[in-house]
Structures are given as structure tokens and as C-alpha cells.
Amino acid sequence: MYENLYGSPKDSLKLYAGNKGNEEKEAGLLECVHSILPQKYLTGPSLAPLVDIYISILSRNLNEKMFQVGSWTQIEDFWSFFTQVICRCTIETLLGSAILKQYPGIIKDYLKFAEATAGFLPCLPRFLASAAYEGPRDRLLEGVVKWLKANHSGSEFANIGDDDPVWDEHKGSKFVQERDDVFAKTEGVDLKSRAAEILSVIHGSNSIIIPCAFWTIIELLQQPQLGKQVTADISQHHLPQPGEYDVSSILNTPLIQSMHTEVRRLRVPTVTTRTNEVDNLQLDEQWRLPKGTTVVLLSRDISLHADFWAKARPRTIERPLEEFWAERFLISSRTAPSVKREKQLKDNSNSGSFSMEGLEPLDLVLNDSDATLAVFFTQFELQLCDDSESLAAGLLPPVREAAFGTVKPLDEVAVRIRKRKIGPVFNGLNINL
């Protein structure tokens, strides 16, 4: 994947394949960059300052669009608008603002790269994959290499001390600084390899944050009462005058948690490939997996499997699984697990040898998605230009036709937007279709 998708030089691929004699050292490197550092910077309290920076960047970007208080601005293609805005904000949050000036085409090139790789499967032979992504990918690598030379050169470029700021406009976030510092000090890793790793972080973040936040907004606009309820929940954790949000509290709201899970289940299908490294892995009573076999795991198989959901939690199939239902994963206090039971479940989930290596923590996705909702629905008003029935009939892709990849609307979705009047805390969402 690192060679075909991200353009890593062949000499650096031994880091991911396991080089004889250096397995322990290389495993330690991958554990550090794919697990330890994400846990350090992108989960829990450590993530909050970075989310605040994302909110500030997103708010500034939207307010620079010249939206008015008293009149509507119509955006004919909300998907294109939204992807450009969020992509710009995530890149600036991760890498700093200097790269946007040094490499003005980074957003355009990344979006071309993302579109061309939407159906990429790591296990496919190279000749079966589209080559349309190679041009923008190579420009991305070239631009990031120039940025690294300007801002991450020398042996002590990373400002990652306890007293250092969590974000630097030139060097980027502490997460990116320390991650790149680890690679820079690793033998056999050149600038292009480091750039490929940074591209993997950009893509890993945007490829999930953008569809999660987009489809959440669309579902809220289609269901005005749900939109009002969610915005009321958000407003309880928003101080409008300083423009501050308690995103962790927003994230812990049961309805919002359930809604996020439902959006990911229905609108963000994922694919995972894994190679079995043990002899005859027992799958069930009838099937075993030979050593060296690569398997493809599709989330869509589980998300629409009624029998599985019925056994796991019967309430989830009270409405068809093909239908968006924000409350699907809400549970009553009587059936909620105790604190002790929750700890047991977490402990059990961490057992075994299965690894999600290479995937950034879900905390970043959920926090940035909630931060996006908070800014859009407390600082602005939004309306769908078409009624929800027309949207559902003509623009929502059939859920059983996309096994994986980015789920986009089938046609342009037009949305009106205007600034909110400055006043007391807002307790509802005005969505008059």
C-alpha cells in the first residue's frame, strides 16, 4: 500500500514488510508511529487543544466566505464546497498554515488524489488500480518534501517539549512534528519516505472526517426536528461570545453518539485487508485460514446484516437497516452496562492478536466531526434548497451498491447558508424547507 498508494520508495518498504534481522526494531518503530504517538496526541485530554485549533481555523475560513446575516447565499454543490473547506482545515491543523502558502495547490491536488483512490484496495495488483492518482500524488510528495526541507530540517526541528505549543504555523501540530522526527532519525528513511508518511496521515484523516461530517449535516437538514434537538444539545456546551466549545461534552451526548455510529454504519463503508501470519487460523467449525492468505473485510457485510444485529442488540432492527435512524444505538438506562461491565468489555476487546495498525484513533474523527457540526449549526443557518423527499429519491446512493470507498451524493446538493445574528445562546435550529 505504501508503495502503490502513497509513493514510498522501494528502499523504505522493508520497514513495513519486516526485514530479517531487524524485525524487533522495525516493529517498535511502527508501534510508535501507528499506536503510541496517536494515543499520546489524538486521544483524551491531549486532543482537546488540537480540536480547539481546528475550530478556530474552520470558523475563520467560513467567516471569510462573506456570508451575510440578513440574506441567504446559495451553494449549488455543497459536497464540493464542504470537501474543500474541511480538507483545508484539517491540513492546516495537522501541518500548519505555512504549507498552504508554500504549496498553494495542495488542496486541489489532494482532492484529485482522493477522488482517484476512492476505490483503492491494497490487495489488488498494481495494473488493476487506476493510474489517475499518480500525477496529483507525485505533486503532493514534491510539495511536502519542499515543506519538510524548509520547516523540518536538521536534527532538532521538533518542538515537542511540555512547554512548547501544541501547534506551530510552520512546523505543524506536535503529533506531526514528533512523528516525522521519529522517521527522520530512522536509518534508510529519506525525505520522500517521510513525505509519503505525511500524505498517509492527511488521507487517513480526511477520508473519514469529510464523509462523516457531510452526511451528518445532510441528515440533520433532512429531519428538522432532529436538527433542532442536536443543535440544542450542542448549544448547552457552547459559549457564543468567546466562541468556545466543550467538544468532549458534546461527544458524550447519547443522541450524538448514536447518530455518529449510524452515519458510519450507513454512509462510511470501510475495507480492511489482513494477511494471516499463523498456521491454519480457525475461523469457525468448518473453515480455516492457511498461513499467508490475505483476506478482505468489508464493513458493509456487517452493517446491513439483520441477523447479526438481531443477536447483538434486537432493538437495532426495529427499523430497516437500509434506513438512517439516528436513535438506533440509544439504550435505556435499565439495559446499559454497569461501569464494571464496561471495563470488562474494554479489557476483552483488547485481547488477542488482531491489530488495526495504521488507522488513526476514532477520537480524532469524532471530535473533528462534532467540532464541524458545532461551528456550522451555532454560527450559521443552513437550509436544503430541495425538499427531503426529492433528495432521498434522487441523490442518496443505494446503500447496497457501494461495498467500500467514499459515498458521495449522486448529483449536486444545493444548500442555502447565512450567518446567525449575535445574541444569546441558541436553543434550536431554524430549518424551514
From TrEMBL:
Taxonomic superkingdom: Eukaryota
GO molecular function: heme binding; iron ion binding; oxidoreductase activity, acting on paired donors, with incorporation or reduction of molecular oxygen; steroid hydroxylase activity
Gene3D superfamilies per record: Cytochrome P450 (1.10.630.10)
Alphabetically ordered keywords of this record: Heme, Iron, Metal-binding
PANTHER family: 24-HYDROXYCHOLESTEROL 7-ALPHA-HYDROXYLASE (PTHR24304:SF2), CYTOCHROME P450 FAMILY 7 (PTHR24304)
Family the entry assigns: Belongs to the cytochrome P450 family.
Protein name (record): Uncharacterized protein
